[in-house]
Specification:
It is built from 4 helices and 9 strands, in the order αββββββαβββαα. The chain is mainly beta.
Amino acid sequence: MARDITSAFNNAITDQVVRPLMAIELEFSDGTLRMWNGYGDITMTAGGSSQTFTGAGDLLAITEIEESDILSMSGVTLTLSGIKSSLIATALSAQYTNRNGAIYLGLFDTSANVIADVYTIFKGKMDVLNISEGRETTLIQLKLESRLISFEKPSNRMYTFEDQKVDYPNDLGFEFIPDLQDKEIIWGKATN
């Protein structure tokens, strides 16, 4: 699959020493959560705009991201552990189902600056969020589903004159569809 990456990104990823970073962006109903797998805050251009991402250190885990040459719908699971109680409150109260989520791959240069145009490796919709509380730590797991999953949802639309009127009141394209239901069509037979 072709990749749209800048020449600086391409040079850094083919260098002898590669300094990668992973970042996530989750659009909850009460705000967007941006985290990366390092320490401290960093500002980088991801998803088309410059944003600040908060470091989660080694507390952030991402399952394997699958890619194939066939049209398939594989998801990703994000795991956060040892997190602040405010984030747990957000996870419990905010609306997240069917909201956008993205995972980015970025690279640092030799001066520890993020190379421009961080690459989007996964974009999907938030699906299931599980919180497991233990004595010592709390674990949040969030499943991101591929955007292709929307192809499995039924459209609940019909090819009828009445259904066409919902979107296009003046369109008469389906006006004669009811007459075709029991229509006998003679095909390939000589007529007199």
